Amino acid sequence: MIENHYDYCVEIHSKEDGLIAKCRMNIDWAPAVEDALWRGICLGVLDAFHPDGDIAIEPSFDPELQAPYIAGFSIRLPIANHPFSVEFNSQYFWMQLYPLTSLLHQQNQSGDKNAYYYQFFAMKKSSFVETETKSSIKIKALEPAFSMISIDLQSYREKSESVDNPQKEFPVFIRRTVLDECIEQSKEAGSLEIGGVLLGSVGKDKDETFLEITHQIPVQSPGTLNKLEFKPETWEYMRWKVQQRGVQGDWIGWWHTHSYLKDVCHKCEKYKTNSCHAGSLFFSTDDYAVQRTVFPRAYSVALVIGESPCAGLQYGLWGWRKGLMERRGFYVLDSNA
Ligand SMILES: [Zn+2]
Ligand SMILES: [Zn+2]
Fold first, then answer.
1. Contacts (Cβ under 8 Å, ≥6 apart) of 17
2. pLDDT tens per residue across span 8-29
3. N or C end of the chain, less CB within 10 A?
4. What is the DSSP letter of 167?
5. For the chain, which residues make up each domain, given as ranges?
6. pLDDT tens across 209-218, in order?
7. Coil, strand, or helix at residue 21?
8. Bridge partners, 319 (sequence order)
9. Which fold has domain 153-333?
10. Residue 56's closest CA among 38, 29, 26, 25?
11. What is the 271 CA–ligand 1 centroid distance (Å)?
């Protein structure tokens, strides 16, 4: 259960008119809670995603502006004799406010990007126990299989190629066969957007927790035009397909292509002068919605592959960091490692 004694609110100020609105935010706490649980598991102070006792969410008041204004919040896990809490800054609220802020900025005629500013605050509420995180999206929780494989991570690293600085957080290894298959299927699909599920396992080597992606299963949506759509039926179909193939592993992420640039940059005028900056490595709000719905666990990842005449082949990995989806590094592991 989540114990939360506060309402989290925002003041919207306009440069011209001053304070224009105060509203309560309907915050989806789940990604932050997942992050805190995962940190607990990685540090070895927790051994499951279902701790005994309540998880507490508390405001972190702004030291300059002071209460009720907040700089963020913290999540405290119920671990006996071992106080463990994780701090989150106000960046977390931005993701949740995005639909509102983008609407305000669209409506703003002056084109001034800083026409509005926002201040977050927290107020005590009378009834304080929330039984569920407030979200319109149902979480289909993935139970982690902690295989506790005793491998020597150092030898894995030696047999791997680093992509985008993977040393910064828990290691993710993607087998080269998986990456190659995704790239090949992306090439075959031309400018059609395709994708699939990444399978693998969470493992622990002495003190370090890691992720290994061993297989991918592509989504085939016959008859689709140019957009990959993830409907509930798609995931049901994928479950069936994974079973059919008899592939071992948990669903630990997904991959998809941003291939529209093959059309956009077809005969691109900037190609010759090497001045085209169109890139395909980004994580859209639609991508976030898929991640949040199907892969809410803090260790879940998303691989994005893009290719265009100007930018060439690009790929990048996104993962949860403090409840937000951010670009992260990974290792490409030679399969016979
Ligand atoms: Zn171009
Ligand atoms: Zn996307």
1. none
2. 999 988 888 888 888 888 899 9
3. N
4. G
5. 2-130, 153-333
6. 899 999 999 8
7. strand
8. 301, 326
9. Cytidine Deaminase; domain 2 (3.40.140)
10. 29
11. 6
